Amino acid sequence: MTPSPHASAAQDPALIELESGVRSYSRSWPVVFDRAVGSRLYDTAGRGYLDFFAGAGALNYGHNPSELKRALIEYLSDDRVMHSLDMFTAARNDFISEFRTRILEPRGLDHRLLFPGPGGTNAVEAALKIARKATGRTNVLSFTNAFHGMTLGALAVTGNALKRGGAGIPLTGAVPMPYDGYADGGDFALLERLLADPGSGLDAPAAVIVETLQGEGGLNPARVEWLQRLAELCREHGIVLIVDDVQMGCGRTGSFFSFEEAGIVPDIVCLSKSISGYGIPMALTLVRPELDVFAPGEHNGTFRGVSAGFATAAEAIRQYWSDDTLAADVRRKGERTGVRLAAIAEAHPVIAVRAKGRGLARGIEMSGGEIADAVCAEAFEHGMLVETSGPRGEVVKLLPALTISDAELDEGLDILERAVAAVAGRTLARATASTEPEREEQPA
């Protein structure tokens, strides 16, 4: 048997046995990673892998960006406060000041900052609680193929059956509606009728929660006009509009917030993943002042103030969001990527359906989940990390670092093109073999 090219970096089977079976990414990439710089990870054998996964969007500025690393090392070496709950600290003040000056004020936003806990699902749970308390209503409208987190409230507004099934109890308090492009007909004809009809059975919603570009749901982008009409409906009916920007915020779509292109102002915005800039757990719920209804201590948590995260987050804002340079570069690279992916999809119709996405959240929808898995596995064999998304895992999803160089971007797209071609070739060969009639043996 030919040894695996990754054998020298394989995980110890005894250690695998100690882990829960719930682990997932390590099944797709069965090597032990040790170092990471920029857009590359290195396993314990020293092999490099081009990273088009970026911590599921938690590493928008790449691995260990030097300016942020310097800020973190200085923070640690000076014995600065590491754990502070919600006490005032210099690091907290620095982040809030930078966020207000460079993010909120230039966009005309007056939202207050609530630090709910370390993860995106914490930001969503806080948003849902605020909306329900502020309106006195309980029902929340969500959308097909949405993903908002793994805790019970966030799962209730998530569409994925596998994720929902892990709850073990009924998930209530939410009603799904068709996302943009999900169903034929008027964009909001059904919702408008349900909201207006006292006999519809739809309780007046406290909130609508939406992703402007569904990441885990399959890279489904909402049109500007669809988002604008949704915002209008929320205003007309006194519904709190929550935008979940956990994965698509912090520049992923080509602007700091993914909703900026639509010109809407959400009542609540959920941020996490890349808000710390360094992969340090941190989450943020932005709330319009009139919705800031929690009493002191009514929503808290032990790790709602990870000070090292404040230090790197403030530096990330200074480094990347003092002007429009990064945003413009993301838009440029995103357009190049979209054109390239469309060409790859068009060249291999036997397995590829279409290119999808916006900014630097891009991908190709394949004919099925097994095909997408095969493309990702092929890419991994050639030294590239890329994952799948979509309700059936049918989309090959690219989330490269926003700071990726043009050369690395082209390198990754080249690997992906070869992977798609290889899987398409095998698929076509199998299809041809299965349809060829058996040859009858000729008499001697």
Shape: globular
Tally of DSSP β-strands: 17
pLDDT averaged over residues: 95
Query: Class of the largest domain in CATH?
Result: Alpha Beta
CATH topology of the largest domain: Aspartate Aminotransferase, domain 2
Number of helices: 14
How big is the Rg? 23 Å
Distance between the termini: 39 Å
Poorly predicted regions are 1-5
How much helical structure, as a percent, in the residues? 25-40%
In total, the number of domains comes to 2
**Main sheet overview:** 7 strands, mixed
The proportion of strand residues reads: 15-25%
Family: Belongs to the class-III pyridoxal-phosphate-dependent aminotransferase family.
Keywords: Aminotransferase, Pyridoxal phosphate, Transferase
Protein name: Diaminobutyrate--2-oxoglutarate transaminase
Cofactor: pyridoxal 5'-phosphate
Describe the structure.
The protein has 444 residues and is an alpha/beta fold. The chain has 2 domains: 8-65 and 325-432, Aspartate Aminotransferase, domain 1; 80-320, Aspartate Aminotransferase, domain 2, CATH 3.40.640. The protein is built from 14 helices and 17 strands. The chain has helices at 13-18, 25-28, 54-57, 66-77, 90-104, 120-135, 152-156, 161-165, 189-196, 224-237, 307-320, 325-347, 369-381, 406-435, and strands at residues 33-37, 40-43, 48-51, 112-114, 139-143, 174-177, 205-210, 213-214, 220-221, 240-244, 268-271, 284-287, 352-358, 361-366, 384-385, 387-389, 395-398. A 7-stranded mixed sheet has the order 4-12-11-10-7-5-6. Helix 12 runs parallel beside helix 14 (406-435) and helix 13 packs across helix 14 (406-435). It is globular. The protein starts with 12 loop residues before the first helix and ends in a 9-residue tail after the last helix. Residues 1-5 have low confidence and may be disordered.
